[in-house]
Amino acid sequence: MQVEIRRGIITIPLACKRFNEQMKTKMFDKAAIIGLGLMGASLGLALKREKIAKKIVGFARRPETRKKALAGKIVDAACGRLEDAVQGADFIVLCAPVGVIPDMMKQCRPCLLPNAIVTDVGSVKAQIAAEAEKIFKDGRAEFIGSHPIAGSEQHGLEAARAGLYQGAVVVITPTRRTSERALRTIKQFWQALGAEVVAVAPEIHDRMIARTSHLPHVMAALLAGCVGREQAEKYGKFCGPGFRDATRIAEGDPELWRDILENNARFLIKELAVFEKELMHLLAGLKKGGGTALKQYLNKGRECRRLLTARFRQ
């Protein structure tokens, strides 16, 4: 399998069909999914579809969530205690807000098998990776972070779908302490779900995602709030598809996104400063008049968008 390296970023391409079939043959005896929202429930459906684990156990605090997960055949068993869910599991995926993942790792560590591999699906990695190295320093289990660049403005188990990760880019974030076994397992796992895997250091991940994901989310929220700042019902009649497309992600779960943005504030602040500088230049050009600056920004925006979204048009 060829691996492409560009500017310190390792890209592991989609595996061939034969390789995928080999990987899908029960990679794990028991997989535990901690959190059954959109990401966790979609993961359960994908694991079921690809037959990757002999048994899939989910954890959710709310009884109604556990009941729905069982009724929807998302998991084979559902637990209300995290320790019960991870007991005997050789693969654990933490699908929870990034701010609580370190505490979850501490809580489940005593119950883990010696060779268990733990990952997550959070969109902030540096702090989690640092905490994980302290929590699992005794080698009882091993953590390697994952961030599937997938999802929706919708949330909750009801929005789950088995194909959420198909064709998605999944960033994995090994550290100097990551074993070859754990790295290989995580690569194979996400590839078995049809994802393209890219490996970067945790801090590099956070810096890039601040620009490509966290900044756009803040901008969408600010735009929606600015346009709807008063008499939103009245102005809504004049909002077309452009407004809808530009603000779609503003409907994301506010509590979930507050947690994400706070945990990556260091890099988000830098991206907001860049945006502020660009906005000031645009304002100065508009005040000066003549339209030259405005046209330059529009041309730049069009070309950058075409480059940034080229993969979606292939």
Structure description:
It is a single chain. The protein is α/β, with parallel strands linked by helices. The protein has a six-stranded parallel sheet, sandwiched between helices. A five-stranded mixed sheet has the order 1-2-11-10-9, with helices on one face. Strand 10, helix 7 and strand 11 form a beta-alpha-beta unit. The N terminus is likely disordered.
Q: Which oligomeric form is depicted?
A: single chain
Approximately how much helix is present in the residues?
A: 40-55%
Tell me about the biggest sheet? Answer: 6 strands, parallel
Counting DSSP E segments of at least 2 residues, the number of strands comes to 11
Report the average pLDDT across residues. Answer: 90
CATH level 4 superfamily of the largest domain: NAD(P)-binding Rossmann-like Domain
**Text of the CATH class of the largest domain:** Alpha Beta
Helix-strand sequence: EEHEHEHEHEHEHEEEHEHHHHHH
Spans of at least 5 consecutive residues with low confidence: 1-8, 11-24
**Tally of individual domains:** 2
Might you state the CATH topology name of the largest domain? Rossmann fold
Amino- and carboxy-terminal Cα gap: 22 Å
Rounded Rg: 21 Å
Shape: globular
